[in-house]
Write a structure and sequence with these properties.
Elements (H helix, E strand, L loop, with lengths): L1 H27 L26 H5 L2 H4 L15
Length: 80
Amino acid sequence: MITHCVGEAYAQLHADKANVIVSSFRKLGLSLPIDRSLDHELDINAFENLEIGNWQEDLGSLDDRADVGLEGDEVIEFLN
């Protein structure tokens, strides 16, 4: 019953305020592409002159951070 009520409330909110939801996700960067092409759309309150770094350079590559062996891992079961 509660799940049904929450689902109905969300459906109504989405129908009535879809533009607010989409705008909020874009302003917070949650739905922006990771290629940084639309970072200028970020608009987070209390963060003026927000400078976004390059996450790819900051993290490095996975191979640099992890010991990835070439052999199969006995703990992981590979399914075909």
